[in-house]
Amino acid sequence: MDRRKLMIQGVAALAVPSLPKGYVFGEKSLEISGAGSLRSHARHAHLLSGSAVRVDDLQSNSEYARLVSEQCDIVVAHNEMKWVALRPKRETFDFHWGDLLVQFARKNKMRMRGHTLAWHESVPEWIREDENRKNARELFVNHITTVCRHFAGHIHSWDVVNEAILPKDGEPGGMRKSFWYENVGTDYIDLAFRTAHSADPKAKLTYNDYGVEYENAEDAERRERVLELVQGMRQRGVPIHAVGIQSHIKAEKAGGFGKGLADYLASLQALGLEVYLTELDVNEDDIASNDVSIRDTEIAQVYADFLRVALGNPAVKAVLTWDITDRFTWLNNGPTHKKKQPERPQRALPFDRDFKPKQAFFAMRDSFDARHQKKTR
């Protein structure tokens, strides 16, 4: 496919102004609840602001549950709606934890995202057995149909397929050689979207992926491959409504965010797709200083720099962080030997371990305000 055809020229965009040098995040208002919440400020900018959550955290910590209900208009499950959680055995579906999250969202008048119907890292062991592997396509369709019908009417949007692109695998279109790709078929993405739409025609169906944010060759190639994928889906009449940008970004300065990301968003907008920032956080391992105030300032600036570019396009309709508090960030759960700062807990999210707002909170809120102010001029 001609790469030049993927980049759309002359697409209307909403340029969000840069925050001035020396800007103090949150200097206009320190009130964080009610009208001061992320939820409220996002609404003014025609955005949904939300977070990933775990049901057991919501149940065991009332202060955390209050924070989520106060700050979020939309939530998504960390793990409760993935294959391994929902389908422990071939004959068994377990919707208990997912249903509890639905109840929490409804009680607090929130929307809810479903995550995820097909992901290479959530493949139950039972389906890998020879007897089941040969029936993988049938089981795949059955799973998506059953899950989408069960949650129909409660889901704003589904991450139907997650992380299907991996150019280094050498497959056509840059496809990842996942269990689903090799056993369901190379058309498994189209099949997943068509099946999900048939089971829940009101849910917005999303393709979700990572590694498209930076100005480097690797991210540029992934952007091209995702654009090829979704443009092909649109041409084939596959029901896709949105693309998710995971937005796991790093505090390092190299690369940055700029034209590549802006052009990618413009191309998605030109295809008639919405865009969701689905898993936003900032990995701060590259910050050398152990001074919390220095780290928090640098992290907040990264949030502001990224959101300035991302929110410059009106196709971006939702901003979700991958949890809302450092207490539950996934970045502290991996092997310590793989971390540059193994003894230093990450401060990656808008609220600290004690549920207090940090500069990242105010950077997000001020970025929402900057988009709102630009729209009203």
What descriptive keywords fit this protein?
eight-stranded parallel β-barrel; 377 residues; globular; 14 helices; disordered N terminus; alpha/beta; TIM Barrel
Condensed summary:
The protein is α/β, with parallel strands linked by helices and 377 residues long. 39% of the residues lie in helices and 14% in strands. It has an 8-stranded parallel beta barrel with strand order 1-2-3-4-5-6-8-9, surrounded by 6 helices.
Alpha-carbon distance between the termini? 40 Å
Give the class-level CATH name.
Alpha Beta
Sheet with most strands: strand arrangement: 1-2-3-4-5-6-8-9
| Element order: H for helix, E for strand | HEHHEHHEHHHEHHEHEEHEHEH
Structural class call reads alpha/beta
Number of DSSP helical runs: 14
Q: Which percent range describes the beta-strand content?
A: 5-15%
Taken together, the total number of domains comes to: 1
Largest sheet: 8 strands, parallel, barrel
